[in-house]
Specification:
The chain starts with a strand and ends with a helix. With 385 residues, it is α/β, with parallel strands linked by helices. The chain has an eight-stranded mixed sheet, sandwiched between helices. It has a six-stranded antiparallel sheet with strand order 14-15-13-16-18-17. The protein is globular, with a radius of gyration of 22 Å. It has two domains: 171 residues, Carbamate kinase (3-Layer(aba) Sandwich), CATH 3.40.1160.10; 132 residues, 2-Layer Sandwich (VC0802-like). The site of magnesium ion (MG) has 4 residues, from loops. Adenosine-5'-diphosphate (ADP) binds next to loops.
Length: 385
């Protein structure tokens, strides 16, 4: 029998009603497949755990933070297994470490380095539905680690690759990948299929729908991902090696970026290594005569503030917006760049940087950009492409 991996996100497992919907979906797949599920923490559990830890300490100990955050997924996995057993299906929940998921020790952004599938395979052979906690593993010293926000998607793809599953299904509150976030852009429409490369750019530019590292893994192991809704049976989006004929696949607005400017820093080049040692992901990095400017994710602010030696230089940190248009070969279509430039004509004074590459065009603005510009850009670029 084929094995499929089914992943359910936080909104899909948020309460008992939704857990029952998830259970029915799993039972449907179980008719023809061996089923391994991956679950996220219920609803806003992870956000709440982070908030609670920060009430105790502004910069919580990283090891303990992972020990804390991993508990959210343990609750949802155990609840789902309890429910499936009650419904008459043999099921077992496994934590990341019980499932044999080994990672490096980069707390809160650990990478999966190996998976020992023997326990999962044994449970599957016993006819059980295996429910694995997403987003977590164990390092070589047996410390609990987590994979970064949204990391359950990566757990699912890593398991699907290790188990040589037929497909990896990622179920959430949206029934596929759209031309823009359907919650913000009225006319956004669903894509039938998309290549790994394009999806990797869409996730990398900040669209929440899939964890960026899960797409990289899927491409490396040629593991097709199907994103679909937990709450309906609409056909989802297939992410694989296939190509579609439209150029523009999706536009993304990312307001989770900080622009950091440091005046008169000595050895600005060495700062890059320090940032990387702290696992702070850098976007653009500019070194000028008397200042250095770079972008980071909002979530890395506390780590940055702890690292900077503000006695020796002045630092300013601003929230900025990046808008990206993704599509394979986009740089060969100057008419697209022309449309983009037209849309932002009246806020052009706020443009800090325009970056054109083979698969994306992105613009960095010095302040938060109103959502109306995203809708206008989508109308011009995605509705008559
Ligand atoms: P889960 O909790 O199931 O992991 P996420 O919240 O991480 O789900 O991802 C799903 C959300 O991604 C949707 O609710 C949607 O608002 C958002 N999203 C952002 N960009 C896109 C896009 N291009 N296509 C579909 N959804 C998107
Ligand atoms: N629960 C974690 C988070 O909220 C992981 C995930 O949902 O994928 O980021
Ligand atoms: Mg997610």
């Amino acid at each position: 029998m084929n094995t499929v991996v089914l992943k359910f996100g936080g909104s899909s497992v948020s309460d008992n009603i939704n857990l029952n919907i998830v259970a029915q979906k799993i039972i449907e797949f179980k008719k023809d497949n061996n089923v391994v599920c991956v679950v996220s923490a219920q609803g806003k559990t992870t956000d709440n755990l982070i908030k609670e830890a920060k009430e105790l300490s502004a910069i919580p100990d990283e090891r303990e933070m992972d020990a804390l955050l991993s508990t959210g997924e343990q609750v949802s996995a155990a609840k789902l297994a309890i429910l499936l057993n009650m419904l008459g299906y043999k099921a077992i929940s496994l934590t990341g470490w019980q499932a044999g998921i080994f990672t490096n020790s980069d707390y809160q952004s650990s990478k999966v380095i190996d998976i020992d599938t023997s326990r999962i395979k044994k449970e599957v052979e016993d006819g059980k539905i295996v429910v694995v906690t997403g987003f977590q593993g164990i390092d070589e010293k047996s410390n609990i680690t987590t994979l970064g926000r949204g990391g359950s998607d990566t757990t699912a793809v890593a398991l699907a690759a290790a188990l040589k599953a037929e497909h990896c299904y990622i179920f959430s509150d949206v029934d596929g990948v759209y031309t823009a976030d359907p919650k913000s852009v009225k006319l956004a429409h669903k894509l039938g299929s998309i290549s790994y490369e394009e999806m990797s750019y869409i996730s990398g530019e900040g669209a929440k729908v899939l964890h960026d590292r899960c797409v990289e893994l899927a491409e490396r192991y040629n593991m097709p991902i199907i994103t679909a809704s937990t709450f309906n049976t609409n056909k989802g989006t297939r992410i694989s090696t296939c190509m579609e004929d439209t150029v523009i696949k999706s536009i993304i607005k990312n307001d989770n970026i900080l622009l950091v400017k440091i005046n008169n820093i000595e050895e600005p080049y060495n700062l890059i290594t320090k940032l990387l040692d702290e696992s702070i992901k850098i976007g653009k990095y500019v070194i000028e005569n008397n200042y250095t400017e770079f972008t980071i994710n909002k979530s890395d602010r506390a780590k940055l503030e702890k690292m900077l030696d503000k006695k020796n230089y002045t630092v300013s940190i601003e929230v900025v917006t990046k808008i990206s248009v993704v599509g394979s070969g986009i740089s060969n279509h100057p008419e697209i760049l022309k449309k983009i430039v037209n849309v932002f004509d009246d806020i052009s004074k706020n443009i800090l940087e325009l970056d054109v590459s083979a698969c994306k065009i992105s613009i960095l603005f010095s302040e938060i950009v109103d959502i109306k510009y995203l809708n206008e850009l989508h109308d011009k670029c995605c509705c008559n492409d």
